[in-house]
Amino acid sequence: MAKILIADDDPDLVGIVDDCLSAELHTVDTVLSGAETRDRLKFYKYDLVILDWHFPDASGPDILHDFREQGGITPVLMLTGRNATADKEYGLDSGADDYLTKPFDARELKARVRALLRRSAGAASNLLKVRDLILDPVAHTVTRNGISIDLLPREFALLEFMMRHPNQPFSNEALLDRVWSTESDSSHDAVRTCIQRLRKKLDVEGERSIISTKHRVGYILEP
Fold this sequence. Notes:
This protein is α/β, with parallel strands linked by helices. It has eight helices and 13 strands. Helix 6 packs across helix 8 and helix 7 (about 170-180) crosses helix 8 (about 190-200).
């Protein structure tokens, strides 16, 4: 699971990509203009950005260049109908991590998204491992000590995020920002309830919980 921003001025294409990535249990935000894209990149954190080359009010490469100049490190997949080598070179030199030409196959899009997320997490494999807990984000499976654990989509998304960032504390607000949709009206109670359900499903009797709480700091998944 990742929180992904889709920025494209074609609402039909945005809807298709949104459905494709949501089916992979990613949390997706969408915007349709250059101005909205700049605002989202300025005020919110994402694990991946899928960025169109051209908006009526802005250039995708210009938005990306400014984002990188301001210290933005989020992986960016550029979408465009331009397939000339010079265009690809320009897009990559603007700060894109990958480049996908329209029209594209949904399977290729998903594969490139997985590759960029693995690269940003520094992982060579799709599998995430913490202690004896193994999560497969492609097959959407979780096991502990070889025993399969059934998780609800939001539980799976929250666990995957924390497994990608072990030993890092996250407050309720930070988890809402990174795991729930920006448009969601969920509260801190939703985070606490989800953490409680995860502990009930993941923890082993007699052992310390894999998700600990640090007073006034937040929740930590401890390796």
